[in-house]
Design a protein that fits this description.
The chain is α+β, with helices and mostly antiparallel strands and 281 residues long. The protein has helices spanning 13-18, 73-88, 105-113, 158-170, 223-240, 253-263, and strands at residues 4-7, 33-40, 43-52, 57-64, 94-99, 117-128, 151-152, 190-193, 199-209, 212-220, 245-248, 267-277.
Length: 281
């Protein structure tokens, strides 16, 4: 099948999302993203969404229209993108991360059969489900070692936030770079300040879709503050969102230990697969 690959225009992105060709949590950014359409004649067959994270590219989604599936269109879309990378000399590492679940067997096979990626289990996703454990109404009573209570991120003054974000950027922390504050759930985002008023710990949560949230960012300068801010977030979630699930991916072993301690038996664990484009192929 002959396919034509073309970049989607900015004004097309909202309609592509509404039609299901882009993920539900897709945000229209000013830059750093590439959305490619696969056309069969005048018919839209599929959409490839790539995010440029600076030093590397991430394959965010590849969606093919139902009547065009099983025809190799997804593979052809990847080949076309790879070829354009070679032609332009833009050989940045390309990654893809996805949750290994039964209903995603088709995607697992697609990645492995594409001939471009090698995969490995990289992390574990913890899905904290308040319906599976007792909820605590005393979440606001959690204190840090310094005796300070956690505060809602939305109520922190802009200058304090700006100093915190600037300090994290200077430290090389790029996890905040693509987070859209407009997508934060104001009731579930907390921070902890020191005696000097500066932010010592922060936990940011985004609502992805109905009854599904993500712990998108968590940081602290010490373990005690970390546990306080994350514990406040999870306990607030238990009370306010009893029919929902919050997903969290630990960024290191320390974070994983704390999440394990806080969620106890109230979570499901699923494997996250890391797939990387092999330039040697």
């Amino acid at each position: 099948m002959d396919l034509e690959m073309t970049a989607a225009k900015r004004e097309e992105l909202d309609s592509l999302k509404k039609e299901g060709f882009l993920p539900p949590d897709f945000q229209v950014l000013k830059a750093h993203q590439l959305v490619l359409k696969a056309l069969s004649g005048d018919e839209l067959a599929g959409v490839l969404y790539i995010l440029d994270r600076g030093g590397a590219l991430e394959l965010m989604s590849i969606i093919v229209k139902e009547e065009y599936r099983r025809l190799g269109i997804g593979t052809n879309m990847l080949r076309s993108f790879f070829s354009s990378c070679y032609l332009t000399g833009e050989l940045k590492p390309l990654y893809c991360f996805y949750i290994r679940e039964d209903w995603l067997d088709g995607f697992d096979a697609f990645i492995n059969d594409s001939g471009y990626f090698y995969t490995e289990i990289s992390q574990t996703l913890y899905a904290a489900d308040p319906r599976r454990r007792m909820r605590s109404a005393g979440y606001n009573e959690i204190k840090s070692a310094a005796g300070a209570s956690c505060e809602l991120w939305a109520k922190i003054d802009p200058n304090t936030k700006k100093r915190f974000l600037k300090s994290r950027a200077a430290a090389g922390d790029h996890l905040l770079q693509n987070l859209d504050e407009a997508s934060f759930d104001e009731d579930l985002c907390f921070c902890l300040r020191g005696r000097d008023g500066e932010i010592r710990a922060v936990s940011l949560v985004q609502k992805l879709e109905e009854e599904r949230y993500a712990l998108s960012y968590v940081y602290s300068i010490d373990p005690v503050s970390f546990e306080a801010v994350l514990g406040t977030t999870l306990r607030t979630f238990d009370v306010l969102c009893e029919d929902s699930v919050m997903e969290a991916v630990p960024v290191n072993a320390r974070v994983e230990r704390i999440i394990n301690k806080l969620v106890e038996k109230g979570s499901e664990q699923r494997e996250i697969v890391s797939a990387q484009w092999n330039y040697r192929l």
